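Format notes (please read before filing issues)

Several people have asked whether sequences and structure tokens are stored in separate files. They are not. Every record keeps both together, in the order shown below: the sequence lines, then the token lines. Line labels are part of the format and must not be stripped during preprocessing.
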Amino acid sequence: MAVGIWSMVKANRGTVTGYFLAGRSMWWGPIGLSLYGSNIGSTSFIGLAGTGAASGIAVSAYELSGLFCLLLLAWLYIPVYISSAVTTMPQYLKKRFGGRRLQIYLSVLALIQYIFIKISADMFAGALFIQLALGWSLYPSILLLLAITAVYTIGGGLTAVMYTDAVSVCIMVIGAIILMVMAFVRVGGIETLITEYFQSIPDVRPPNTTCGVPTPEAFHLFRDATGSDLPWPGLVFGIFILSAWYFCTDQVLVQRSLAAKNMTHAKGGSILAAGLKILPLFLMVMPGMISRVLFKDDVACVTAEECVRACGNPASCTNIAYPKLVIELMPVGLRGLMVATMLAALMSSLTSVFNSSSSIFTVDLWGRVRRKASQRELMLVGRLFVLVMVGVGILWIPVVQAAQGGQLFDYIQSITSYQAPPVLACFTLGILWPRTNEPGAFWGMIIGLVVGTVRLILDFSYGFPRCGEPDNRPDIITRFHFLHFAILLFALCILATVVISLLTEPQDKDKLVRLTWWTRHSEEMPVDLSDSEEEEEEETEKEENGELQLEVTEQDVQGKMGDSVLLR
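Then the structure lines:
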């Protein structure tokens, strides 16, 4: 917190660029650490360890895929974003395609995702750790975390966020390495873990079922394509789509690279973050599996009664795998270090989301309502909007607790699978295929939104049955894994965008300058398609509205004291 306050005082907070992009003056070190810290928050500690405890190492594929997507960000996407001189991702769509609807659509969708995926999940994960470690109840823990985080996020902008992220990541890695070493010593090493994991079956479970029995594929990264919890086609292609969306088009991550001094520092930051992505398998996933071995009746509980006893959540207790290790293995002093580690992870993630969401709301939505708003007004609106998002996120936390069988990480990835592919398809085609136009991009995303929303509603409507209970969900849910659905949805959006673009008029080439991969080095000045169209729309509206000063009748003159009447 001290670093955050120091950087808050140091930061240039008087302009939109200074507040939201740190004045575009960051070097590769803080960029790389902030990229990693924004990604590896408390949800990763809780979620990766919990899913590792439930099903083994395959969940680490999300992190390994992110390694390659960070490099893709630096070498394919960021050069175009920087050449187009944008502050937010919706702003890029506005410049690339023109019009208003794409920018507004992506802005609203991003804010919804931040509330229901990022903020609520982060708050739940961090508060769960404090609840177990310190014995506090859930919601007072959340309020404490928010109070600490909001001080320097609202005050200092992206500069404060990135410097705080850099310190937080160092604390996270040191604390996690210490706990990992202690956990492996306690369990007896990797060979003992491999043997004992398959024996970690809870004593209380439904008879004549496989409930609580570890999957035989626990130490396999590539699993059966149809009957496993993480099928290999989804692992190879589906996870890559989700990771590419997150690292290459999501405001939270891209904003860090946009703050770089130049392309060299942007690429250096991505390389540093990509190297750190190797760590979660050893620092989070395997410790989660060790926690199941050591505390099988708590972490691996399957009956509602046992789970309520162990963690208060009748759906599952795998989310307590990491906090349980901290509480049971570490002495008092080191336990304090790990509390600091988890607080650092939570604050790193939350501050990133808070700053990015206020950027989108201020630049892309409020700026459209109040086009002549002062810098002071924009700063104030951005800070107040953070408070609104926090309130809605808190109300959504009970849903997070019960979703996807109580596994936090699966909850996050399943919702992302239904919403991210259309966005990635739009950005990728916009950058790589100049023929993509506004109707194709917009309707491609709308088609993806409708199809994804139908699947999302089905998921939440039917819920997730407990082990041993009959599964009455339709085949589209039970037999069609959400990662396979992400692949299909991405392909559908690509096809729809291409077909609609080919059937409609192309954009003028002079309006694509510095906005695609092929024109990023152009020396011509770009024509802002959105501004020219807005001016035309305003003129058209005036003509259609017909603001005419008409002559009035003699009676009107007498009644109105000679004033003319404005008729529309």
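For reference, the curators noted about this record: The beta strands are 548-550, 565-567. The longest strand covers residues 548-550.
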